[in-house]
């Protein structure tokens, strides 16, 4: 979680004082999205390894993934001090962005860690 | 655009470097990345690295970009000899390189040999018509010679091809303002606002130009842009505050008798006047 | 079918782990190789450069339309999209199809080939290598149950219909790695991860993009933009800002 927060620390205020009108500094916005994507990917890999080591199987693992992603969303929102619209287009990008891409990494690392620890 | 944090970082590093601390290379990198013009510092500290063969070779391939950076800085400081030395080293390393050719042309320009430099730039452009730096150098050279109309020509030609280059638009706008061609300047500033709608500087400059053009409609527009500048800067722009006051009084003179929307506008004016008073106290 | 297979630990040490490590290393290697190959640049076509710039500028206009006065917006819109000589207007006959354009310009085809080759060659090589060394192993077991339909996907290379579907053959493990490691690459290689295979595969079918099509799309986008000047709102907001400041 420490690294995630660290990465997230570089989120820049994209549009000071323009929060009602939807105008964005495209560059900062892109940066924000990138930070989200990174923290998601990072967490999905880490959580995959954790799930594998703990030996979750079946539905448990996926529930674990959803849980982690939900926590990430909340943490990201908290980092943006819950005023999403001054950093991002909409809630969607904080909640769903990188969700499916992360799932693939999650499954891979989950399988990998699970096999190494439990199967052999 | 250089953000405030970046600027602070540069200043911090500059202080550190000036006082003999480390981080010279980081400072030079940052200056290069942000495209700052601190030629004297770059020249001084870049040379200190280049003259130290151990430090120089520690840079690896970055050594050559440093040579280029120092050469340009030296030209800016009129240390022609240093620039010549740097370019010579680069020439030996990269014979026939266009990038070095560009430096040579710039050296000619720095020495004031305009026609030779012009020829060099044209031949460079023949080889690669998309060298944006050379295009810009040509416009800058015309401007340096005092040949403003040629500079405008070059810039227009350049913008016809690279029409998304906002730096060139800005340069053109400033030239037009200096020539008092405000309509053209207004167009350029509109273009700048389009490309970066959140930069208050462009709103302010646009408002200035529109205000200068005069006429009721333009004045009202100018007031709106001063207002947006205030909004974007959080009310810290004295010039915009002053502009609001001027616009309002000018509009008031023009619309004397016909009072329709002066109620709300006068409030903006009184507010900005108050803010100005606070500023000056 | 219900009983668990016992997998030899040697399979883990000599198949599962090496395969994954090699996949990561190859990804890193390819990133650097593609970086090297990208270095050489050639002179682009002036028309294409200009079209790219026009598109950027038109996009700016669309995004920032509300920040300039209506008159200026209308003038620009006409400049871009009028039917005679607007910058975004593409005459019908001139819109040649990209295929023909590609054949007329061998350089472009060459470039495309190079790009694709740099993607395909390492892929086939690794695949061949995996096939050669690791064919037929049951290398892993995914920790969740799946239906029979996934058998073809997960047990590629072993023809046993009695093994539980959640066991993965080595070849399929390779594919899992291929897709799942993308996230890892973007983390360790930084922003421009050149190893985005799946997206490139999709692009390949489209075979590059057609500039005249993007011009047309931009024109359509510009046509439907409603100009609503945002500046009047700013007066109130400036007032609010100042009121706060004065207080």
UniProtKB/TrEMBL annotation, chain A:
Query: Family, per the entry?
Result: Belongs to the EMC6 family.
Highest taxon of the lineage: Eukaryota
Species classification = Eukaryota, Viridiplantae, Streptophyta, Embryophyta, Tracheophyta
The record's annotation in Pfam families points to:
EMC6
Its membrane topology is listed as: Multi-pass membrane protein
As for subcellular location, the record says: Endoplasmic reticulum membrane
Spell out where the chain crosses the membrane.
Answer: 37-56, 62-82, 94-114
Q: Which UniProt keywords apply?
A: Endoplasmic reticulum, Membrane, Transmembrane, Transmembrane helix
Listed name of the protein:
ER membrane protein complex subunit 6
User: What is the organism of origin for this protein?
Assistant: Datura stramonium (Jimsonweed)
Point out the coiled-coil segments of this chain: none
TrEMBL record, chain B:
Q: Which residues form the EMC2 TPR-like domain?
A: 100-209
Topology in membrane: Peripheral membrane protein
Q: What is the lineage of its organism?
A: Eukaryota, Viridiplantae, Streptophyta, Embryophyta, Tracheophyta
Q: Which Gene3D superfamilies match?
A: Tetratricopeptide repeat domain
- Subunit relationships: Component of the ER membrane protein complex (EMC).
* Record's protein name: ER membrane protein complex subunit 2
Q: Which organism is it from?
A: Datura stramonium (Jimsonweed)
Q: What family is reported?
A: Belongs to the EMC2 family.
Which PANTHER family does the record cross-reference, listed alphabetically?
TETRATRICOPEPTIDE REPEAT PROTEIN
Q: Which UniProt keywords apply?
A: Endoplasmic reticulum, Membrane, Repeat, TPR repeat
UniProtKB/TrEMBL annotation, chain C:
This protein's source sits in the domain of life called Eukaryota
> Which segments of the protein form a coiled coil according to its record?
none
Q: How does it sit in the membrane?
A: Multi-pass membrane protein
Its subcellular locations are: Membrane
Q: Principal place where this protein is found? A: membrane
User: What residue ranges are annotated as transmembrane?
Assistant: 14-33, 117-140
Q: Which UniProt keywords apply?
A: Membrane, Transmembrane, Transmembrane helix
Family, per entry: Belongs to the EMC3 family.
Name of this chain's protein: ER membrane protein complex subunit 3
């Amino acid at each position: 979680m420490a690294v995630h927060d660290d990465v997230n620390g570089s989120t820049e205020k994209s549009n000071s004082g323009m929060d009602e009108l939807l105008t964005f500094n495209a560059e900062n916005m892109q940066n924000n999205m990138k930070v989200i994507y990174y923290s998601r990917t990072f967490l999905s890999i880490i959580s995959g390894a954790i799930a594998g080591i703990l030996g979750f199987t079946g539905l448990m693992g996926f529930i674990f993934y959803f849980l982690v992603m939900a926590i990430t969303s909340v943490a990201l929102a908290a980092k943006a001090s819950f005023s999403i619209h001054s950093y991002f287009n909409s809630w969607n990008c904080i909640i769903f962005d990188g969700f499916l891409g992360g799932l693939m990494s999650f499954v891979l690392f989950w399988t990998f860690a699970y096999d190494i620890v439990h199967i052999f | 655009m250089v953000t405030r944090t970046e600027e602070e970082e540069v200043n911090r590093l500059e202080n550190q470097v000036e006082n003999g601390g480390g981080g010279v290379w980081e400072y030079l990198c940052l200056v290069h990345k942000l495209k700052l013009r601190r030629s004297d510092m770059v020249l001084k500290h870049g040379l200190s690295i280049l003259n130290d063969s151990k430090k120089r070779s520690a840079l690896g391939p970055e050594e050559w970009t440093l040579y280029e950076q120092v050469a340009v800085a030296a030209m800016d400081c009129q240390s022609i000899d240093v620039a010549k030395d740097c370019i010579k080293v680069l020439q030996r390393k990269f014979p026939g390189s266009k990038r070095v050719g560009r430096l040579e042309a710039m050296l000619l320009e720095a020495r004031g040999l305009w026609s030779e430099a012009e020829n060099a730039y044209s031949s460079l452009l023949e080889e690669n018509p998309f060298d944006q730096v050379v295009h810009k150098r040509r416009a800058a050279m015309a401007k340096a010679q005092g040949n403003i109309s040629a500079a405008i020509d070059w810039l227009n030609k350049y913008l016809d091809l690279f029409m998304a280059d906002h730096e060139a638009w800005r340069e053109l706008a400033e030239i037009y303002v200096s020539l008092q061609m405000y309509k053209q300047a207004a167009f350029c500033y509109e273009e700048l606002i389009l490309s970066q709608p959140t930069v208050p500087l462009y709103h302010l400059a646009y408002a200035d130009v529109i205000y200068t053009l005069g006429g009721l409609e333009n004045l009202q527009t100018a007031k709106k842009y001063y207002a947006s500048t205030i909004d974007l800067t959080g009310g810290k722009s004295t010039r915009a505050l002053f502009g609001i006051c001027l616009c309002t009084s000018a509009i008031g003179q023009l619309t004397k008798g016909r009072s329709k929307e002066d109620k709300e506008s006068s409030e903006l004016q009184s507010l900005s006047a108050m803010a100005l008073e606070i500023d000056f106290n | 079918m219900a009983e668990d297979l016992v997998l030899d630990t040697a399979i883990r040490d000599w198949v599962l782990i090496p395969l994954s490590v090699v996949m990561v290393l190859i990804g890193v290697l390819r990133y650097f190789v593609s970086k090297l190959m990208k270095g050489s640049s050639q002179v682009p076509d002036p028309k294409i450069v200009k079209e790219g710039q026009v598109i950027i500028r038109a996009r700016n206009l669309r995004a920032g339309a509300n920040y300039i006065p209506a008159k200026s917006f209308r003038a620009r819109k006409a400049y871009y999209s009028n039917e005679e000589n607007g910058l975004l207007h593409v005459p019908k006959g001139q819109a040649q199809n990209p295929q023909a354009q590609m054949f007329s310009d061998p350089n472009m085809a060459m470039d495309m080939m190079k790009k694709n080759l740099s993607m395909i060659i390492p892929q086939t090589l690794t695949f061949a290598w995996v096939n050669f060394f690791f064919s037929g192993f049951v290398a892993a077991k995914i920790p969740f149950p799946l239906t029979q339909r996934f058998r073809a996907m997960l047990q590629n290379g072993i023809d046993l219909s009695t093994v539980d579907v959640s066991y993965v053959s080595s070849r399929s493990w390779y594919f899992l790695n291929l897709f799942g490691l993308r996230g890892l690459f973007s983390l360790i290689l930084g922003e421009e991860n050149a190893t985005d295979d799946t997206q490139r595969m999709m692009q390949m079918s489209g075979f590059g993009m057609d500039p005249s099509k993007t011009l047309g799309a931009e024109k359509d986008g510009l046509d439907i933009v409603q100009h609503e000047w945002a500046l009047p709102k700013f007066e109130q907001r400036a007032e609010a800002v100042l009121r706060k400041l004065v207080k």
